[in-house]
Hints:
Structural class: alpha/beta
CATH topology of the largest domain: Rossmann fold
CATH superfamily of the largest domain: P-loop containing nucleotide triphosphate hydrolases
CATH architecture of the largest domain: 3-Layer(aba) Sandwich
Strand order of the largest sheet: 2-1-3-4-5
Amino acid sequence: MKRILIIDDEEEMLNSLSKILSRRPEFKLTLLQDANKALQLIASQSFDLIITDLRMKEVSGMDILEAAFQADNNNKVIIISGYGTIETSVDAIRYGAADFLEKPFTANKLFNSIDNILNAENIQKEVDHEEVPSKQIFESIIYKSEQISKIVQLIKRVSPSNTSILITGESGTGKELIARAIHNLSPRKLNPFVPVNCGALPENLFESELFGHERGAFTGAVRTKPGLLEFADTGTFFFDEIGDLGLSLQVKLLRMLEDRKIRRIGNVKEIPIDVRIVVATNKNLERLIEQNLFREDLYYRLTTMRIEIPPLRQRPDDIMPIANHILSTICKDNSGYKCSFSQEAKEQLEAYSWPGNVRELQNIIQHAYLLRSSEVIKAEDLPNSTKSNKSCITDKFLKLPYKEAKSKITQEFEIAYLKYNLQKYEGNISKTAEVCGMDRRTIHRLLKKEDIIV
């Protein structure tokens, strides 16, 4: 359970943040509208994360940030504001904020920021020197499909080398899981794995985070700070969304890959580093090269080996194994309460196209878990969006023998057709038969056959 303190003097914003973050059962939220009370609470209690508004009536977000560091230098703080500028975001980060979010922001952006910050704590942990079994490494990659099975075999082959790897795939397909598996199967597994999102920070601030800076290198640089690349020495560095990296930083990254050295901002001394680079993107890098937005020489440096993760809609065999794993995890986080899917819910999940991939699947299952009325998640517990593109001819039928598939499709059509029209004509069988051009005896026979109650 992660304890999160949220501070905002606007009740509406406080309620919005609470509603969004309550989707994650592993978060325990404390909400405060009074910033003065927040200062007292920060001094007396510990939190995994503090989220605060920048501009409040009596106490500012920067005051909260200062109080958080006075209480514990390791406190993590996200500052949010509707008056954000590059300067204010840079100042907030330089003075210790873990992130700065400008209003309005999406729920996904908030969750990404929180996950990046909380996951970064794992980097600081002492390394467990025990050998990690291969089975444990792949525990988080839930799959049944042949496509992912082939990717797992490829990971096992390429992980022992120091080759740079490009992972491509749509947003939410699990690119970071693949990157972590590569690291955990490599000789570097006992050393740091450092992930960073290339689009998360302004370019001028990102350079400082990446390469580090010396004290006095710029206004606000009150102490020397090693960069993330330096921290990842002897380990693996994961650039997520490499397509968002600015051209000037692409040049510096290319130089680092060629020389295996970095230079902190404000220092002429070069520092040798030994890192394996794994990158990921949901963008078409070849198209970005054509548009002069991505360097071709860097592209070839990074694509010695390429792993492409297919979207969830192209591997329907993985939908229910992943869904069951997500639901099991949610149940464990809620005192082990048992829960399962009804057959209709399973069919609806399998028929949906999942444009948001595994991340969307996770959000929808959390949504359904909260709305369920029993220990079984039913089709009606799922959001309407999962019903919009449901097709009667899905992969589950295409894999069956022709006669069996035809029989099942016909059966589902008959049930759906009868339910729709009987509901439309308020259960009047005679009216339904007349309008639909069916015999009353046929309707009665189908109702009995399919056990439909009118």
